[in-house]
Amino acid sequence: MRIGVTLALLIATTSSAVANGAFEFVIPGRPGVPVIINGIDASYAVVEGEWGLGQGNQVQPTIYGGRYIDPVPQVGRYYPSAGRMPGYGRLEIEPPANRRLPQPAESYHQSWSVQSAPLPAQSNVPVNPPEIIYAPDYDRRRPRHVPH
């Protein structure tokens, strides 16, 4: 009996250590946002050997079904830091210095202004002042004596 309980305890404690090396399915948290692992899009792929923070060592994961991501994107924009001419767009031509200049443009000036409407004259004291309301004389510390 003791051998059976000991064997069951040994199997139960070591099974969690064996389960750590299994594979995982990678599902992105948001649609359209890829999960990149070492330059490979691992979205909806199987990753084997990725332990993350569970172990104290680094393991190179194996990715089954991922797509390679190009580190230099081939997009239709011009990045001057790349040192290449754009593939399309406006071709800048510097005109010669001794060319004939066009006629100067006519002068143009426009302005806007804003002002408030004049207010009527106001007196400092209102003509019909409100009535004065006196607050009741009440002190919480002293009880009130109400006549019967």
In a nutshell, what does this entry contain?
With 148 residues, the protein is mostly loops.
Structure description:
The protein is low in regular secondary structure. The protein has one helix at 2-18, and strands spanning 23-25, 36-37, 40-41, 46-48, 62-64, 67-68. Strand 2 and strand 3 form a beta hairpin. The longest helix is centred in the first third of the chain and has 17 residues, at 2-18. The radius of gyration is 42 Å and the shape is flat. It starts with a helix and ends in an 80-residue tail after the last strand. The model has no long low-confidence stretch (mean pLDDT 76).
Write down the overall geometry: flat
Rg calc: 42 Å
Q: In order across it, which strands form the biggest sheet?
A: 1-4-5
**What is the succession of H and E elements?**
HEEEEEE
Write the SSE topology.
Layout: H1 2-18, E1 23-25, E2 36-37, E3 40-41, E4 46-48, E5 62-64, E6 67-68
Antiparallel strand pairs: 1-4, 2-3, 3-6, 4-5
Defining traits:
3-stranded antiparallel sheet, flat, 148 residues
